[in-house]
Specification:
The chain contains four helices and 13 strands. The chain is of the alpha+beta class. It starts with a strand and ends with a strand.
Length: about 250
């Protein structure tokens, strides 16, 4: 137990106290710890939700390319300790970006990064503001097809004015399939379509991937509701592989 600057090792902690546990390297912020004997009966605590999200980003690059792996490990440790820090890698440039709540937050994060990286020398760019993309009004119903043109989807997008699905902006006839950290929500309003349950996971994966980079300036999408209106899934499993479904494109 923590007592100011001091720590006292104890064999057990009664309810109502705050304890510190060491050695849980695989634990992540927001997860619920429970004894293995109670894992089937215990209900996890509600997921942590933060008021805001990262709004500033810096690019971090090692002076010596051979130190990249050490720097990436240090960044991953930093992100584990601070859930408000996000680490991303650009598939186009290979650059690693560090995003935080502001310039001061990033300054503190890079200070910790120097300690965690074991003396690795790296360069940090000037902070840049993060932007978001969205929609301003209900869109028309559009179509998309899988890469082999054997599966088709009809979708409609509209803005969300508040947090979904608790806000009531999702109709009773719609089933919420997914919602990401930027409140983008995917709902299913189809009616018992054949084979739809078998391709649900790749559809959700495609939705999450599309929300990461918007069509205007490749910035993340936020506060949108994507409604799956109608689908036609091929009866042959070989023609509806996850890659075919997740990468469906407008037609």
């Amino acid at each position: 137990m923590y007592m100011g600057f001091y720590r006292e090792a104890v064999p057990k902690i009664p309810a109502g106290n705050i304890a510190a546990l060491e050695g849980l390297e695989s634990a992540r912020a927001g997860e619920t710890l429970v004894d293995a004997t109670n894992k089937d009966a215990m209900t996890p605590f509600e997921r942590l939700k933060y008021v805001s999200e990262p709004i500033a980003t810096v690019v971090v690059e090692p002076r010596n390319p051979e130190d990249l792996s050490s720097l990436v490990k240090a960044m991953q440790r930093l992100a584990l300790e601070d859930p408000n820090i996000t680490i991303t890698m650009s598939e186009r440039t290979g650059e690693y970006s560090l995003s935080g709540m502001g310039e001061l937050h990033l300054e503190i994060a890079t200070t910790f990064l120097k300690d965690y990286s074991g003396g690795v020398k790296f360069a940090v760019s000037k902070p840049a503001a993060d932007y978001r993309e969205g929609v301003t009004e209900r869109g028309s119903i559009v179509s998309a097809k899988s890469l082999n043109k054997k599966n088709s989807f009809q979708l409609q997008v509209r803005p969300l004015k508040s947090k979904a699905p608790e806000s009531g902006e999702v109709d009773e006839s719609e089933i919420v399939w997914a919602q990401d950290e930027r409140r983008n929500t995917l709902v299913d309003s189809t009616k018992n379509t054949d084979y739809l349950a078998e391709v649900r996971d790749p559809i959700v994966s495609g939705f999450r991937w599309a929300c990461k980079t918007g069509p205007l300036c490749e910035q993340p999408l936020t506060n949108i509701k994507v409604r799956l209106v109608n689908v036609q899934i091929h009866e042959d499993p070989a023609e509806r592989e996850p890659t075919q479904i997740a990468r469906a494109c407008p037609c």
